[in-house]
TrEMBL record:
Residues 14-160 form the Glycosyltransferase subfamily 4-like N-terminal domain. Residues 171-335 form the Glycosyl transferase family domain. It comes from the Bacteria. This is Glycosyl transferase. GO terms for molecular function: transferase activity. Keywords: Transferase. It comes from Zoogloea oryzae. The keyword Transferase applies. SUPFAM superfamilies: UDP-Glycosyltransferase/glycogen phosphorylase.
Length: 360
């Protein structure tokens, strides 16, 4: 079996990392994999093991030329199936390219943002099957009219191993310039509106009155960074907020957090939450999308309603005030990741869909 994978992301964020897990896992099972990705991207530089990478121009939704470039690649390589892993043009242009080349096509859907029933009726004709990374996303598609037999949930996975090693507290605090007695809440997310950074900054002044040793570490990068930095300064939060940037060595430090906060408005599943759980970190997040599948309310963390700042403040306050509860949630989260979110299960799930699509 030969599969052409298309991943249009430029950076190894959650979705692109999942693609890396999938192609390497498939290669280990004897599947011939070809991975098309943007020239100069992190994915192109990483060169996943056992996978042939084809860097090419990918200009996103405004680049219809992707259709011809991908169709040419499909005709030259003759894969049995095309698997589209991302948006940014790869979904629509990739689907059209597969149709032009007459090759079956599978789409992975990683976001829960709604689409009109008309758009779903037209666009999803391009795909022989759709794989969602959470049941929450699957239910969104079903509610928009996609036939149940055409969509399968295969949850994202996490390689827990790098997150299992204990983090030395003194080394962690020295790395990020934190006081020895700091209570550290982390945010690990792209700096884009739907991740909800603004809600945390809004409630932080009130939380600092109750927990003056609280410090927020914001990991990541994105178009909202300048705006968020300005808001931190305007609220007088410079001493309580650190911008840690995008860290390739995040597994080394994630376990040093006392809690992770992810107040997202929309989310497919939340890979950073799975990573935090693997590191034994308790979580505060919302009931948006697939997040209730990543975090069990009252077991591995606390869930709130999206955009509800009062609930957000209360949940952070509860965890900040209770070290025993943080430890219990963290231990339960790690055990659940090891039991339910393995890479092997995700690879097997994707392979089962391929075989279903290719079955005569």
């Amino acid at each position: 079996m030969k599969i052409l994978h298309v991943e249009a992301g430029k950076f190894l964020y959650g979705g692109a990392r999942q693609v890396q897990y999938i192609v390497e896992g498939l290669a280990a099972r004897g599947i011939d994999n070809l991975l098309a990705c943007p020239a100069g991207s992190d994915t192109a530089r990483q060169q996943p093991a056992g996978v042939r990478v084809v860097p090419m121009k990918m200009g996103g939704d405004g680049d219809p030329g992707m259709v011809l470039r991908l169709a040419s690649l499909i005709r030259a390589e003759k894969p049995d199936l095309v698997h589209l892993h991302s948006r940014r043009g790869a979904d629509t242009w990739g689907g059209l390219a597969a149709k032009l080349a007459g090759v079956p096509c599978v789409l992975s859907r990683r976001v829960d943002n709604p689409e009109s029933r008309l758009a779903v009726a037209i666009k999803y004709r391009l795909y022989d099957h759709v794989i969602t990374i959470s049941e929450g996303i699957r239910q969104v598609l079903l509610s928009e009219g996609l036939a149940p037999e055409k969509v399968t949930c295969v949850r994202s996975a996490v390689d827990a191993t790098p997150y299992l090693a204990p983090v030395d507290a003194a080394t962690f605090r020295a790395e990020f310039g934190l006081p020895a007695d700091a209570l550290v809440a982390g945010v690990v997310a792209q700096m884009i509106p739907r991740k909800g950074h603004r809600y945390l900054l809004s409630v932080l002044p009130g939380l600092l009155e109750k927990h003056p040793k609280l410090i927020v570490l914001i990991f990541g990068q994105g178009p909202l960074e300048a705006e968020l930095r300005a808001e931190v300064q305007s609220r007088g939060l410079d001493a309580a907020v650190r911008f840690a940037g995008f860290r390739h060595d995040l597994p080394r430090w994630l376990g040093g957090l006392d809690l992770l906060v992810h107040p997202a408005d929309m989310e497919g599943l939340g890979v950073s939450l799975l990573q935090a759980s693997a590191a034994g970190v308790p979580i505060v997040t919302t009931r948006a999308g697939g997040l209730p599948e990543a975090v069990l309310d009252g077991v591995t963390g606390l869930l709130i309603d999206p955009g509800n700042e009062a609930q957000l403040a209360a949940a952070i306050d509860r965890l900040a005030a209770d070290p025993a509860l943080r430890a219990r949630f963290g231990a339960a989260g790690r055990a659940r990741i090891l039991a339910e979110f393995s890479i092997d299960a995700m690879v097997a799930g994707n392979l089962a869909v391929y075989r279903q699509v290719l079955r005569p």
